[in-house]
Amino acid sequence: MAVTDLPAVAGVLTGADCLRTAESIAATQESDGALPWFTGGHTDPWDHIENAMALTVAGLRDQARAAYAWSAATQRPDGSWPMQFRRGEVENADADTNFCAYIATGVLHFLTSTDDSAFAIDMWPTVRRAIDFVLALQQGRYGEIHWSLGPTGSSGAALLTGCSSIFHSLRCALVLADHVGDPQPEWEVAALRLGHALREHPEAFLDKNRYSMDWYYPILGGAVRDRAGHGRIHSRWDDFVVDDLGIRCVSDQPWVTGAETCELVLALDALGDRDRAMRLFANMQHLRETDGSYWTGLVFADGKRWPEERTTWTGAAMILAADALSRTTAANGIFRDLLPAPTVTGHLTCDCVDTRP
């Protein structure tokens, strides 16, 4: 893939810049295909997939394939992954449902980018097992999904950000199911329930509203869009957005982070708010290093990078945002152009959604 075919954002990022960032991610890849947070750091199944998606965007498809092969090889028989690895060893054996579901987003992204049906067919059993595992933990009253499973059983808490991401992954999984000819109607019902919970029942989720991700992720995941999405953005813009720097990770700390800023860019792009998306994308570039890597964040009260880490997934979020803004690859709309979010009109006859006040 020529540099001229890579995402570029006028006045902000060139195709060569995009490739340099992707190469900084690829440089961390371990021999088994794992993509850790940084060289020598740990690998988690979600950020690993985000990194693979960024490599795909930049044309580093062999490295992306190796990453997906790692995911298939490390999946446990029940469809889950350990929450954390380091250099091939499991550091945290608990399973995070959002981490597990994200394989569906990654596989659909690769399929859409490359039109490689054989890859999707090969990965389909991995995706199917992962989604079945996740949906086994959809035990809440409104369709929320417990966030983790460990040796002592499932966590009773459901997280808004995690469930918003799972909602998106479920929709990706449904597209894949149709593509490979293995429809999963029960997944559609699960998506209906989860989307309803995200839109109508905030009480179903652990209160973490000081985190910016809880603000924009229902939009990024597709459960909330249109007028409701614009209203949600307006309601807390001043709490999180710091002029010329990006957005805060948490509302009560003077700390802006690059990945969250780029995810908000993707959410704004999905709403059609491109002017503010472009401005935020430009604002976060102060975190870029000369090798194309990105610092995780900046404490703007004292001008210090914190943590003192250049994380692969920050660069990956930047590449995905650049692709969305520039409309470059076939998969640039992975967070924008999926089928409309399932909605509930009245009571379903199977009573699978509780629509009571």
Question: How would you describe the overall organization of this protein?
Answer:
The chain has 357 residues and is α+β, with helices and mostly antiparallel strands. The chain has a single domain (3-326), classed as Alpha/alpha barrel (Glycosyltransferase). 49% of the residues lie in helices and 8% in strands. The protein has twelve helices and ten strands. It has helices spanning 15-26, 45-57, 61-74, 97-114, 117-135, 160-180, 185-200, 212-220, 226-240, 258-271, 274-283, 312-326, and strands at 84-86, 89-92, 95-96, 148-150, 153-154, 241-242, 246-248, 255-257, 297-299, 304-305. The strands form three sheets. Strands 6-7-8-9-10 form a five-stranded antiparallel beta sheet. It has a three-stranded antiparallel beta sheet with strand order 3-4-5. A two-stranded antiparallel ribbon has the order 1-2. Strand 4 (148-150) and strand 5 form a beta hairpin. Helix 5 crosses helix 6. 55% of the residues are buried. Residues 340-357 have low confidence and may be disordered. It comes from Nocardia uniformis. GO terms for molecular function: transferase activity. Keywords: Transferase. One of its GO terms (biological process) is carbohydrate metabolic process. InterPro entries: 6-hairpin_glycosidase_sf, 6hp_glycosidase-like_sf.
